[in-house]
Design brief:
With 669 residues, this protein is mostly helical. The chain folds into 4 domains: 95 residues, Arc Repressor Mutant, subunit A, CATH 1.10.10.10; 343 residues, no CATH class; 48 residues, no CATH class; 142 residues, no CATH class. α18 links the parallel β7 and β8. α12 runs antiparallel to α14 and α24 runs antiparallel to α26. 34% of the residues are buried.
Amino acid sequence: MMDDQLAVSLAVLKVNFDRLGRDYVDNFVPFVVDALRLLTHDEVSAVEVGDLLRQEYGLQIPLGPLRTILKRAARQGFLHVDSGIYLVQRGMVASDGLSGIREAARARYRSLVSRYVDFCRLRFDATISVTDAEAALTEFADRYCVPFLRSVVGVPEDGSRPQERSDHYMFGAFVDHLYADEPECFGFLVEIAKGSMLAQALYVPDISAVSQRFRDVRVFLDTTFLLRALGYSGPSLEAPCRGLVDGLRETGAKPRCFDVTLKEAKGILFANALRLRGGGWRAFGETVDHFRRQGLSSTDVMLLCEHLEENLRQIGVVVEDRPPYTPALTLDEKRLEEVLDTEIRYSNREALVHDLNVVMAIYRARAGVFPRFVEDCRAVFVTTNGSLLAAVNSFMRESFPEADLGVPLAIGDYAAGTYVWLKRPMQMPDLPRDRVIADCYAALSPPQSVWRLYFAELDKLVASGAITPEDHALLRSLDADRTLMELTRGDPEAFTEGTVDEILERARERMRQEAEAGKTRAEELLGQESAARLAAEKKAADKHQEAEDAKAAIPLATAEQEGADRTRIEHQCRRVARAFGWTTKIAAVAVLAAGSVLTLLDMRNRVPGIVIGIFLGVSALAALYASVTGKAIKDFVEKQEDWVTQRLVAFFWSEGDRRLPQQQDDGPH
């Protein structure tokens, strides 16, 4: 099998789910149809189809679920069943429906492999082959695949997860890079994870039971899981745990916490509070590390400890006492303690006693019954501790060698999360994505074995006086864990005496770079401030100049306005004078005409003499004016118009009345 087959097939499985809906049997029918198309003969058995699916697609489907899939394919017309023999219907399987989808997924897979090879070279100066990159992706796919779900349906977990490769840290850093900078490639990884989780439906004895709700099942959660669900280990680890708690409630289960687990969780928080009070520099672990990064004080953590039960209730987890001791419902406690201590090698006895009490309590809660389906198991313990799973399952097989143990007393958080997600995948779309992010976070965090070596070396340097207080502060800074992982990649054997010196040198260099960056930034801010000040000064100067220009323009505008006003007054006065002139002309003509008529008609006896005298006098004056000046009466009137105009203009301008009505110039000129 090529390394890319499983990852590509899982991505295709997710595409099938999106196309065909949440019927898990239908999701696998396209693979069967595509395999049937490759056969050169028509008669086929379930075993033969299973071998072909494994060879071509990397899918290992148990025989029972495979028969269910073949029946569904027959119902859809791709096969004909005759006396238990499957006959391929060539007309129905002729199309290559999966080819296009597979090629698209394979292209994305190869692009991802190429990106990982380049990332390792550029980021870590490490040369890895395409085969190594494909193996890393195969390991990633296996992480979300079997054997985790088998424990839910009666195949106990052995507590082991896929063996981590030496480049586990590099792949975690690669996933972190994709999440931050290449969302499309990160999305393809999530599709592989979803496909892996969808494939787990094959391991349910009755595949129709996947969609069933839990029936009065209490799910007891371990200490680490609860602290993560509360957000006390950071958001990356919180999301999948909180999602599982919500999913349990939505599918009918009852999230619970034993009283002894609450006590253990309080003890951890109290110990972390004491470590923070002393500076916390020797403390390590996801919870205290998160508290330090958040800047929480010892008092802050003590408050979290005091309100722990209330905070659990707020996220939907209820604290419950253990069932009372019953002689008829007991296990070999001494033997169980031996198995636990041998398998797990507890660093303190309190943790051993806690796990022992929890396992015994779950057995009593089940009333000694071995349930076949998790939906009816009454009680189950969900833990993040794979070694605990292995120890408990080993003890139960030893204690009941002939019994069908059914659903184990304890299952892993991965198995529980996958099973709940299969019940409500559309309502919990982010759980696979959150799990990928959580795994990435875990891959980038130093394991306890590396932390112990680091602090042991640090103690030696402090005792010998080889480092200064300033160096000591740098070596216990929050960035030290990142450098520690870059140097060791999580491998204790890669830790040497020079590791701490290298971390210190990198921390000093980081400080120098930060100081230089701070200086550069300060200079940039100073330059920006200076530029802003100059711009403000220029703006103020421009405004001042505008004001001065406006002020200087006032006299000119005033003069222009006065000129316009005087012109308007002169125009109006000229109109009045012309009206006066026309009146004078008409009167003069009338007088002359009247005088002439009176003279010609000899009307002196009928008209008063004074009137005749006036008419004759005016006529004589007009004649005299014309003979002396050589001008007609018209010229006299025009001269009088000019004089009247000047007098009127002088009068109105001196009075300051520059608001004479503006009339249409429709009079005589």
